[in-house]
């Protein structure tokens, strides 16, 4: 009995499909045993995999990146005769062996004829080689058939096997197993069908039977079937998820349409994300720049589709996908150049593929899942990451409320760009550093008054309505401070201070959230925090369409980090009223948190991966959040980015240097050093040292008690 052990990463939801395919393959091969596992089994019950590996003839793995899993597998599979590892950590891929074809830890590369053939399947750019390689999968085996060398034929078989795997689906997986069995396990199979092919890149819609190979063809069809008045949002999807008909894909497409957006769903293998964004998609900004002669991307296709935003459900880096997650494959600068040329929001939002919804909502997103969804895409410039769902058992479920948050934020970003500059409403939120020490209107390592004035002056130049702008930033700070400290008389209708009534807050929050706050604070109106009767003071001043105010106090003493982990805590009522007022009354098109740092990103909720119960998500809502942050504090700024949807605008910190000693103190130090070398010999220096103590003023700053005991009065004695 020959055994093939298959372990798939990021695909526990396809276990049933692969097991059905294994049964199909075994039905034609009595001497073949195929064992199917997922990376979740590696984490949760590795013992059920260990025994099958001991007697395996073939080890097959894909998308295995977790370090502990890689090390565990490496020790147990290195003696298996045939090892096929695709799109995984380099430490594991280096074990690949098929006959005489070996990758090894220091691969020597493919034979020169093969390299020449491969070069014809890509644009020649380094970042396009992986995408070109996938094109080579379809024709490469036919070309290599005519090269007789055994090593090349093993390479050809490796390409055939990978071609079946990449094609996806039950029939292709079974055919892959038959190919391995017949060519390397001496099992007679008979006729093996060619791969059932799907385009490497294409577009789909649940109301269309088939695939589109051009964005323009898709749009023409959509124009006939749907309304085209909405903003266009490109959605990058996993091709394998499309092939295996994952239910979340049509659900996601329909959610976008229900929320007033036109989705452009494009499926890719994973490595071609940058090709789609670079060549298939364009933007109003890019068109304007090209008309001015600034052509950054020369490979843009003629029928490229003009979109307003891009959403990737892939995660990983834009360039290379899973392969780009390895250091050798990273192309951050290429991704930066492409996204800068497009100049539209690039958001990663996806269901969790290796973590279940239960653990996410209770513990936050962690481990490799956080790297895929947050860390790697953030290097490219992804913003506003929204987890859309996750695993329930072995199935993918998306959460409609999270999709609504994604589409809501997309619409606000798009509307921000499309709104006339003079009509954009901006809220600027100031802080005080350190908190609680009367440092209102300051920030760590930032001159807030001057920086704020510079920002407002620049906004005015760009056409924003700033109203009458004071000439001094300190005047603005004082005006905001006065508005923030104003005492509200709830019985006086002539109050000019902005307030929110408790009934309005209840309406904005809804019953559930109101109840949570009331349970924590006992009363909505008796906290004593900027609350006057039934009114919450908001404060702030308005300059044209720009509102400037102070962030509310936390109302909780101690380290604000405890807010994240004490999940029963809530912000106090006035805090909630402040942000809800920005959403519903002022109707801000964008918020600017001015300086390091605020507190909204520290509010209770999921440590990573906002849910509908995370207070930072509730209070920021859909409003784009720009966050000015000191560049020397990435650990806390990343929290503002992930939990507070902050688009970080980093600023340099003031220059630092060692002050050192100066003037009399330098001479004083030298005298002391000389004296200490040999006090007896250098006793003559004693008088000079005493004089320097007087001259430098040290006698006044540091009382020399020992000197007094010896009768030395530095305040009167002159030497």
UniProtKB/TrEMBL annotation:
<dbReference type="InterPro" id="IPR022571">
    <property type="entry name" value="Mg_chelatase_H_N"/>
</dbReference>
<comment type="pathway">
    <text>Porphyrin-containing compound metabolism.</text>
</comment>
<dbReference type="InterPro" id="IPR011771">
    <property type="entry name" value="BchH"/>
</dbReference>
<protein>
    <recommendedName>
        <fullName>magnesium chelatase</fullName>
        <ecNumber>6.6.1.1</ecNumber>
    </recommendedName>
</protein>
<keyword id="KW-0547">Nucleotide-binding</keyword>
<dbReference type="GO" id="GO:0015995">
    <property type="term" value="P:chlorophyll biosynthetic process"/>
</dbReference>
<keyword id="KW-0067">ATP-binding</keyword>
<dbReference type="Pfam" id="PF02514">
    <property type="entry name" value="CobN-Mg_chel"/>
</dbReference>
<feature type="domain" description="Magnesium chelatase subunit H N-terminal">
    <location>
        <begin position="3"/>
        <end position="159"/>
    </location>
</feature>
<feature type="domain" description="CobN/magnesium chelatase">
    <location>
        <begin position="163"/>
        <end position="705"/>
    </location>
</feature>
<comment type="similarity">
    <text>Belongs to the Mg-chelatase subunit H family.</text>
</comment>
<dbReference type="GO" id="GO:0016851">
    <property type="term" value="F:magnesium chelatase activity"/>
</dbReference>
<dbReference type="Pfam" id="PF11965">
    <property type="entry name" value="DUF3479"/>
</dbReference>
<keyword id="KW-0436">Ligase</keyword>
<keyword id="KW-0149">Chlorophyll biosynthesis</keyword>
<dbReference type="GO" id="GO:0015979">
    <property type="term" value="P:photosynthesis"/>
</dbReference>
<keyword id="KW-0602">Photosynthesis</keyword>
<dbReference type="InterPro" id="IPR003672">
    <property type="entry name" value="CobN/Mg_chltase"/>
</dbReference>
<dbReference type="GO" id="GO:0005524">
    <property type="term" value="F:ATP binding"/>
</dbReference>
């Amino acid at each position: 009995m020959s055994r093939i052990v298959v372990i798939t990463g990021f695909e526990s939801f396809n276990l049933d499909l692969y097991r059905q395919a294994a049964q199909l393959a075994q039905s034609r091969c009595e001497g073949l045993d195929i064992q199917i596992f997922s990376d979740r089994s590696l984490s949760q019950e590795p013992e059920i995999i260990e025994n099958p590996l001991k007697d395996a003839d073939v080890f097959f793995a894909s998308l295995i990146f977790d370090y502990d899993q890689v090390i565990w597998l490496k020790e147990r599979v290195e003696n298996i005769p045939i090892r096929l590892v695709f799109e995984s950590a380099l430490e594991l891929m280096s074990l690949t062996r098929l006959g005489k074809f070996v990758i090894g830890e220091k691969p020597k590369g493919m034979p020169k004829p093969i390299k020449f053939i491969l070069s014809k399947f890509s644009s020649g750019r380094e970042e396009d080689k992986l995408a070109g390689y996938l094109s080579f999968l379809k024709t490469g085996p036919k070309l290599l058939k005519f090269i007789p060398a055994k090593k090349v034929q093993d390479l050809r078989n490796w390409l055939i096997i990978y071609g079946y795997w990449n094609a996806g689906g039950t029939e292709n997986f079974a055919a892959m197993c038959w190919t391995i069995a017949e060519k390397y396990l001496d099992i007679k199979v008979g006729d093996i069908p060619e791969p059932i092919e799907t385009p490497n890149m294409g577009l789909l819609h649940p109301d269309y039977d088939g695939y589109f190979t051009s964005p323009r063809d898709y749009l023409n069809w959509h124009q006939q079937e749907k309304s085209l008045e909405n903003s266009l949002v490109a959605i990058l999807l996993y091709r394998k998820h499309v092939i295996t008909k994952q239910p979340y894909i049509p659900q996601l497409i329909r959610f976008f349409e229900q929320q007033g957006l036109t989705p452009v769903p494009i499926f890719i293998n994973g490595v071609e994300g940058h090709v789609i964004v670079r060549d298939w998609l364009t933007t109003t900004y890019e068109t304007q720049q090209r008309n001015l002669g600034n052509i950054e991307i020369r490979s843009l296709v003629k029928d490229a589709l003009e979109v307003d935003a891009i959403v990737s459900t892939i995660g990983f880096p834009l360039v290379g996908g899973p392969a780009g997650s390895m250091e050798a494959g990273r192309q951050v600068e290429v991704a930066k150049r492409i996204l800068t040329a497009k100049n539209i929001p690039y958001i990663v939002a996806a269901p969790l593929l290796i973590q279940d919804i239960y653990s996410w909502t209770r513990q936050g997103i962690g481990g490799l899942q956080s790297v895929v969804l947050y860390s790697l895409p953030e290097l490219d410039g992804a913003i506003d990451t929204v987890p859309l769902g996750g695993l329930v058992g072995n199935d993918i479920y998306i959460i409609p409320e999270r999709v609504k948050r994604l589409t809501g934020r997309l619409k606000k970003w798009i509307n921000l760009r499309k709104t006339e500059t003079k009509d954009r409403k901006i809220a600027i939120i100031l802080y005080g550093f350190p908190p609680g020490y009367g440092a209102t209107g300051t920030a760590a390592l930032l001159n807030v008054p001057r920086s704020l004035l510079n920002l407002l002056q620049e906004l005015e130049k760009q056409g924003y309505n700033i109203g009458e702008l004071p000439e001094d930033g300190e005047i603005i700070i004082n005006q905001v401070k006065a508005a923030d400290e104003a005492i509200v008389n709830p019985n006086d209708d002539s109050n000019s201070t902005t307030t929110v009534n408790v009934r309005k807050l209840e309406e904005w929050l809804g019953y559930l959230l109101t109840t949570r706050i009331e349970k924590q604070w006992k009363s909505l109106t008796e906290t004593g925090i900027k609350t006057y009767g039934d009114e919450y003071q908001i404060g702030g001043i308005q300059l044209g369409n720009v509102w400037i105010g102070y962030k509310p106090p936390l109302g909780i003493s101690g380290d604000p980090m405890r807010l994240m982990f004490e999940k029963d805590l809530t912000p106090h009522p006035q805090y909630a009223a402040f942000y809800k007022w920005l959403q519903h009354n002022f109707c801000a098109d964008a918020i600017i948190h001015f300086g390091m740092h605020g507190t909204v990103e520290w509010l209770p909720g999921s440590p990573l991966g906002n849910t509908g119960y995370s207070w930072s998500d509730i209070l920021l809502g859909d409003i784009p959040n720009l966050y000015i942050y000191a560049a020397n504090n990435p650990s806390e700024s990343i929290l503002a980015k992930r939990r507070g949807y902050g688009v970080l605008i980093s600023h340099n910190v003031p220059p630092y240097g060692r002050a050192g000693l100066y003037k009399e103190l330098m001479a004083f130090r030298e005298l002391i050093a000389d004296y200490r070398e040999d006090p007896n010999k250098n006793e003559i220096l004693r008088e000079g040292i005493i004089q320097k103590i007087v001259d430098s003023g040290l006698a006044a700053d540091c009382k020399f008690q020992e000197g007094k005991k010896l009768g030395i009065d530095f305040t009167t004695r002159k030497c």
